[in-house]
Amino acid sequence: MDISQKILGKRVTRIYHNYIDKSLLIYFDEDLLVHFYECAIVFDLGIVGHKITYASHSGTLGISFELKKIGQDPDDYKCIIFSRDIKDYENKNEMVISYKNIKTESTKGCPKSEP
Question: Which domain of life is it from (predicted)?
Answer without folding.
Answer: Bacteria
